[in-house]
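pinned: reference chain
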Amino acid sequence: MKIEIRGVENLSFRERQVVVLKETGETTERIAKKLNLSPSSVATLYNRAKTKGYEVVIILPGTALGMAGADEIDEGDL
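pinned: its C-alpha cells
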C-alpha cells in the first residue's frame, strides 16, 4: 500500500506533519503529544490544511484485494 498526498506543496511543514499523522489514523491527542503541540493547535493546523485542498490517494496493488492479474485485463474483455 502506498499513500500519496496531492497538493502537499500548498501546506506548511507543520500542516504536512499533522495531515500525515491524521490521515494515517492518529488521534488529535496523540498527534499533539508527538509534535509537542496543544490539541487545539493540531485541530487548527488540520482544519487550515483542509481549506487548502489537499487530497489523499491510497494506491493498492491488485493482489492486496485478491485480484491478482487485474492489471492485465484485455480491454476487449470489457
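why pinned: The CA atoms of residues 68 and 74 lie 14 Å apart. The beta strands are 2-6, 55-59.
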